[in-house]
């Protein structure tokens, strides 16, 4: 199968091409540091000889969204977090983007770091990137965790959000996004965490947001799902209205042998609202498929 290559629909094709020539670095040099390569910002944590776990963020998020998971996961995994194109510290290119383009960015990063195979944990948009990789490159994905991941999109909804981002910036999108991502009770009880998530949304490049939103808007990937061979866990927040449990059930039913877990009292970001339950759920699945010893404490840290 040929390498994934995103094909933009506008004149910016040369800016989407993935002939990037990442800078060469060794594993020792990147250990426990944030490094911005020419295109992709990423961070490695955990033992250098441990199984690699690639974490992929949702739309309007950066890799800090996984902060409550890293002290738990990095005990037994080499965690690799990165910022999607136009998010966090990864520069934007002109859009629109496609899921295969974003998947190619992730694959390029694995190639840059000489990682032949990884376990994959993706949230929302990150989940769609994961299933694209697992279906297209089964030899690269050891196991797959898809969290609050869409199986379809409402084009008119995304068209409005794209127009807002490009014409008015991210500020008008912050509050509506927080309302979808976090339950009202959590927002009231954890204002500091809610504000931190809001800052993460606010600092997202409008061009990057629009590009990735267009990838979601145009995705038609369900035909790939039956071809996924990697062990798969689908996770969803009980109160998620963006990708509700019924959608997660359809996603799990479409992937051979997939498991489904519902996180109680959480919306679209269960890893932030209910980190202990989330960590325990993904930890059990990953242990079964990565061959590491059990954790004594499944709860969140930090």
Give an account of the 3D structure.
The chain is an alpha/beta fold and 302 residues long. Helices cover 41% and strands 14% of the residues. It has one domain: Rossmann fold, CATH 3.40.50.1820. The longest helix is centred in the C-terminal third of the chain and has 16 residues. It starts with 12 loop residues before the first helix and ends in a 12-residue tail after the last helix. The N terminus and C terminus are likely disordered.
Report the portion of residues in β strands.
Answer: 5-15%
Q: So, CATH architecture?
A: 3-Layer(aba) Sandwich
The overall pLDDT, averaged over residues, is: 86
The CATH top-level class label = Alpha Beta
Order of H and E elements: HHEEEHEHEHEHHHHHEHEHH
Number of E-state strands: 8
CATH superfamily: Alpha/Beta hydrolase fold, catalytic domain
Number of separate domains: 1
Biggest sheet record: 8 strands, mixed
Query: Which percent range fits the helix content?
Result: 40-55%
Fold blueprint:
Blueprint: H1 13-16, H2 27-30, E1 34-36, E2 41-45, E3 52-56, H3 70-73, E4 78-82, H4 99-112, E5 118-123, H5 125-136, E6 141-147, H6 155-168, H7 171-181, H8 184-189, H9 191-202, H10 206-218, E7 232-237, H11 245-254, E8 259-263, H12 270-273, H13 275-290
Parallel strand pairs: 3-4, 3-5, 5-6, 6-7, 7-8
Antiparallel strand pairs: 1-2, 2-4
Helix pairs in contact: 4-5, 6-10, 7-9
């Amino acid at each position: 199968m040929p390498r994934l290559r995103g094909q933009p629909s506008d004149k910016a094709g040369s800016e989407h091409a993935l002939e990037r020539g990442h800078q060469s670095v060794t594993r020792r040099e990147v250990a426990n540091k944030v490094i911005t390569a020419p295109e992709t910002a990423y961070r490695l944590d955990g033992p250098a000889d441990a199984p690699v776990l690639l974490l992929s963020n949702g739309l309007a998020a950066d890799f800090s969204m996984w902060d409550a998971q890293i002290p738990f996961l990095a005990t037994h995994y080499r965690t690799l977090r990165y910022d999607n194109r136009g998010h966090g510290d990864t520069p934007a290119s002109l859009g629109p983007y496609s899921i295969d383009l974003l998947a190619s960015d992730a694959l390029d990063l694995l190639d840059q770091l000489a990682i032949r195979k990884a376990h994959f944990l993706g949230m929302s948009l990150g989940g769609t990137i994961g299933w694209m990789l697992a279906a297209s490159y089964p030899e690269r994905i050891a196991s797959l965790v898809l969290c609050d991941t869409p199986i379809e999109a409402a084009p008119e909804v995304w068209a409005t959000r794209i127009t807002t981002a490009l014409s008015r910036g991210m500020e008008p999108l912050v509050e509506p996004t927080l309302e979808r991502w976090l339950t009202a009770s959590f927002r009231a009880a954890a204002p500091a965490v809610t504000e931190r998530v809001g800052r993460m949304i606010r600092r997202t490049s409008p061009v990057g947001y629009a590009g990735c939103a267009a990838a979601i808007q145009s995705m038609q990937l369900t035909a790939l799902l039956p071809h996924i061979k990697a062990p798969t866990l689908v996770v969803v927040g009980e109160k998620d209205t963006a990708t509700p449990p019924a959608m997660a059930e359809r996603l799990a039913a479409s992937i051979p042998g997939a498991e489904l877990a519902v996180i109680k009292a959480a919306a679209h970001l269960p890893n932030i609202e209910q980190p202990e339950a989330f960590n325990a759920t993904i930890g059990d699945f990953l242990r079964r498929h990565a061959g590491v010893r059990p954790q004594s404490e499944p709860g969140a840290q930090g």
